[in-house]
Write a structure and sequence with these properties.
Layout: E1 11-21, H1 28-34, E2 38-41, E3 46-51, E4 56-61, E5 65-71, H2 74-91, E6 98-110, H3 117-123, E7 128-130, E8 138-142, E9 147-151, E10 156-161, H4 164-180
Length: about 190
């Protein structure tokens, strides 16, 4: 990530979670009966609706709040949310697409080396924590980016953040710290 090292890391976005509002009340029973690819869950008070392209699953509440999961980019999340709004309009609701925002991005990245987790945690003590009895990864929280990085000894990392930019920045920020604690090949 640094210009002197010339290391190219592939950051693969695996899930983008977004929310939007329809600005109208939604009858969940009507959506369950007339919608396609829906699962009506009256005991929880929501409907799950799935789209094939883009591959998105939406949780729909009667208040008009909709949470979309499963997209692999922010653009795909917005396209899927708009498509869901259009499906609800076709059922007969007066849906107005509003308040769209991406709330969470999950990405994975693989370092070109393995990591000594105990050494990594000791070097970054206040921000990093490692409980091998509870979870096989060390957790590194970056408050300024509102991101969390799970570091595995294999060199794989999982990054969670509010948007794609903060996820990329988190990987850039943690790479030099990880390279200090890399395992030497035996």
């Amino acid at each position: 990530m640094e210009p002197s090292n010339d290391v190219a890391l592939d950051i693969i976005i695996t899930n983008v979670v977004s929310v939007f509002r329809t600005r109208c009340h939604l009858n969940l029973r009507t959506i369950g009966l007339e919608g396609t690819n829906v699962i009506y869950k009256p005991e929880v008070g929501k409907v799950l609706m799935k789209l094939r392209k883009p591959r998105i699953t939406a949780s729909i509440w009667s208040s008009g709040k909709i949470i979309c999961t499963g997209a692999t980019s922010e653009e795909e999340a917005k396209l899927g949310a708009r498509r869901l709004a259009r499906c609800l309009q076709k059922i007969g609701f007066k849906v107005r697409f509003s308040d769209f925002k991406v709330v969470n991005v999950l990405a994975v990245c693989s370092m070109p080396f393995q990591i000594r987790l105990i050494e990594f945690t000791k070097n970054n003590r206040p921000i990093a924590s490692y409980e091998p009895e509870l979870h096989p990864a060390a957790t590194y929280r970056i408050k300024t980016l509102r991101s969390t990085v799970q570091v595995f000894s294999t060199g794989n990392i999982t990054v969670t953040g509010p948007n794609v930019q903060s996820v990329a920045s988190a990987v850039e920020q943690i790479y030099p710290l990880l390279s200090e604690c890399q395992k030497t090949p035996s």
